[in-house]
Amino acid sequence: MKDAELRSEIMRAVKSKDTGPEKIVRSILHRLGFRFRIHRDDLPGKPDIVFSKLKKVIFVHGCFWHGHHCARGNRVPVHNHEYWVEKIEKNRQRDRKVAGLLRKLGWSSKVVWECSLKRPEKVQLDLAEYLKS
After folding, report:
1. At 98, which helix (H) or strand (E)?
2. What is the CA radius of gyration of the chain?
3. What is the pLDDT of residue 86?
4. What is the pLDDT of residue 96?
5. CA-CA distances (angstroms) from residue 42 to 19, 23, 36, 47, 61?
6. Strand, helix or coil for residue 85
7. pLDDT by residue (tens digit) across 55-82?
8. Domain boundaries of the chain, sorted by first residue
9. Global pTM?
10. CATH for 14-132, among 3.40.50.11240, 3.40.20.10, 2.60.40.1120, 3.40.960.10?
């Protein structure tokens, strides 16, 4: 198999729901005693985690796919460079649009970045503060 074909196969296999980082965040939230719904498709952006009574949502973003400013998010593949720059920028624009739509509907949203999960204790404190405020 050629490198480009292998890379394409790997990219197609990347999940958008129930990812490893998402499961870690859900586990942290359960330990904190919160209960929630996942992937509500009646809300803009189908938030990863939804707290209906609190009108709060959490998105768990992969750094590469959503163009985070960390080392992993700042990488852009050399092959098909323009495609990836455009794709990631469209993802970022969509994320901003979804956050605005949720705000207009009276919902608060928070993003948990994949790279932040290297320090789960900090993520736990941030989420507890977000959900209790």
Report:
1. helix 81-104
2. 16
3. 95
4. 98
5. 21, 21, 15, 9, 20
6. helix
7. 999 999 999 999 999 988 888 888 889 9
8. 14-132
9. 0.87
10. 3.40.960.10
Which pLDDT value is given to residue 75?
A: 87
Nearest-5° Cα angle at 24, 89 to 114: 25
CA atoms of 6 and 77, how far apart (whole Å): 14
Q: Which two tokens stand for residue 55?
A: 């009108």
Specify the long-range contacts of residues 108-112, CB closer than 8 Å, at least 24 apart: 108/54, 108/55, 108/56, 108/57, 109/47, 109/56, 109/57, 109/58, 109/59, 110/56, 110/57, 110/58, 110/59, 111/58, 111/59, 111/60, 111/61, 111/66, 112/21, 112/25, 112/58, 112/59, 112/60, 112/61
